[in-house]
Amino acid sequence: MPPSDDESQKRKRDDFTAATKRLLAERVGYLCSNPECRALTIGPRLGTEGSVNTGVAAHITAAASGPGAARFDPSLSPDERKHYTNGIWLCAVHAHQIDHDEKHFTTEKLRGWKQAAESFAAKQMASGASIVAPGVQRELIDELAQLSEALGLPKEDDFPRVREQVELAAQKHVEKFKSADGYPIHPVKLALRAESLFENRKSFDVDRLATAVSRLRKIKLVAPLGTGKSTTLIQLADGLIEQKLIPVVIPLAEWSVAGKDLLQWAASAHSFAGLSSSHLKFMAAHGEVVLLLDGLNELPDTGHTRLVQELKTLERDFPLLMLVVSTRRQASNIPVGEATIEIQKLSQDQQEEIAHSIRGEAGLIMLDHAWKTSGLRDLVSIPFYLSALLQLASQGQLPETKEEIVRALALKHESSWDRKEVVDQVLEGQHVVYLEYLAVEATSSRRPLSRRIARMSWFQRRRESLRKTAKSPGRLRLARCLKHLSGSTPSREMRQIRSAFSIISFRNGTPPTRSRDGS
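Above: the chain's sequence. Below: its structure in token form.
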């Protein structure tokens, strides 16, 4: 029997995939996109586990031509018709309504609804409203049933089994970072603010951010050096685990020299032993994985290009993959995140909490001393500086100036053997002087210390001085190094210095060194 007209028409429809439907729903928090409705379209299944979804992924322009095809656009390709950009999430009532009154519900009106609904859902992140985080829908699991075989996984590696294995590995991986040297003894949850999402710029904490990752999808976590980006990223990983998501933490500086793609690098970590990048891809396709990429600013230009291209490929292959990237402000223009979240400095209460937890009453005395000292008052609101001051206080020292603390930080920096090797080879033991000068210049300026100013302001003068007094090959090499720094042509020495210290690109009020709790 030949197929009926209805069956033929159904086969020709460019329907959304299960992944696209989930993306449309999550981007608006499972709320109807009609601004006069905003009805919640998902809820718990009564009497058993799971959820009930009453929402509809509706086409803005029809999925097929023919009678009743509202707003059909013949210029679109099949892939464009079933793409996320051509969809809108609605309750069942309004999904039916827009298809029966296309003159009123125009393409422009529906696109406006969609944009406003996504903005509304993002603003809920800091409002205190409840956020729905449903599990993976059966439709998506069924649609990806053959994915395990396509990725070369064993037959027994179905979704529940792989999820359990990868989730456990991710938790172990996060614990490795928390137990590493440099992780704060007493981490606090810093205040966060979302740029351009909230008119009143209301602050929230990392727990709130964890519940909103599935809505925002791509996030840049921005702050000056030392403010706690790495620590906040690890705290976010803990929150994501509570949300039943799988955080995969990747320090970009380590990834950039490993010669592997992001998921290969993660799978090669000790915590993921017994798993492969295919297992991570399997979970990414199901919308369970959040990549936490730490230290975008530490990548060279070639690393930026490589990262952006790789993320584009991942986005195309795994549209439900979520992403959070930490970076300093000057690297925040790299196109790897749609929402930008700022990390705020420590409040006085947080400063007291950290000081007391680490040094007890002696820590509070040190903090009071810092508040009364003009050279230090603006530094203790930065976690890395505060930790360094507490360490000095434990040795019976109470520095009076920025120069003293910068000198101590530089000496602490070179205690790492890998950094010390580069320092000794390139700067001939003069790094403390260089860092001290540049740090004081930066923290004294009302504007960021630009690369050009940093190069020209002091290195050029130092180069001329060394030329006059150079009596050894080492000092001659240092003079050549400074010439490169004050010029515009990159050199191997210049790249080594920038990698070791990031001395050219730090911001106001921040030290020219790096630690895990403030990178």
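The chain is about 50% helix and 10% strand.
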